[in-house]
Amino acid sequence: MAVIAGAWAPNVIWHLRAGPRRFNELRLDIPPISAKVLSQRLRELEGRGVIRRTIQPTTPPSVEYSLTPLGTELLPALDAIVEVGHKLKARNRMDDHPQG
Amino acid sequence: MAVIAGAWAPNVIWHLRAGPRRFNELRLDIPPISAKVLSQRLRELEGRGVIRRTIQPTTPPSVEYSLTPLGTELLPALDAIVEVGHKLKARNRMDDHPQG
DNA sequence: CCGTATCCGTTTGGATACTG
DNA sequence: CAGTATCCAAACGGATACGG
Hints:
Two copies of one chain form a homodimer. Chain A is built from five helices and three strands, in the order αβααββαα. The first copy, chain A, has helices at 9-15, 23-29, 35-47, 69-72, 74-96; strands at 21-22, 51-56, 62-67. By secondary structure, chain A is α+β, with helices and mostly antiparallel strands. Chain A is elongated and about 60 Å long. The N and C termini of chain A lie far apart (35 Å). Chain A has one domain (2-96): Winged helix-like DNA-binding domain superfamily/Winged helix DNA-binding domain (Arc Repressor Mutant, subunit A), CATH 1.10.10. Chain A binds a DNA duplex (20 and 20 nucleotides) through residues 6-8, 22-24, 32, 34-40, 60-63.
């Protein structure tokens, strides 16, 4: 499970699902994340082979992060967990307010 | 993701996949887990609706933990994550030892 | 724009001892 | 057997300041 460990790691993976994103784009995608933590997570996920870091030779240069093929395999799993979470929340609301 | 948060939570879920287990059985299933943490995780997972706690009126009485239907839905997701982890480990070994 | 370094409060989990 | 209470060290993440 270490592969998705750390605060915001699943969010980072999730926001890369549609294609490459830059550092500051990810910061805006995941509002309350700090630069420090985003940087840490990106480096960890890169070290584990979940994401790839690419420096684009544009003017000005920019850095892009994207999922590796293996990283992409995590998406359905994260989806499934989130969906169970939603069902659980709905059920717990019903327990508290039986008319819901 | 809070649904699987906390140390050993995925292991607890995993070891309930084949049916109910008792407290001390889970302790032995997950060797380095402490009673305190196992107790905490069981209580959290129960509170979230992932597992169910049942007191068996046997002699002596025993306590059994089992997955709820929603908890069972987490198994394929955990499987998928673990499998990606295995592939990642294999790939990283190859990177370090190109003949592997 | 893309980060890193430092400080610092909070949370976590382990060890141990104890209870019904 | 099935936990709970307490103490403690380590890890974590946030805020801030700073560098390439």
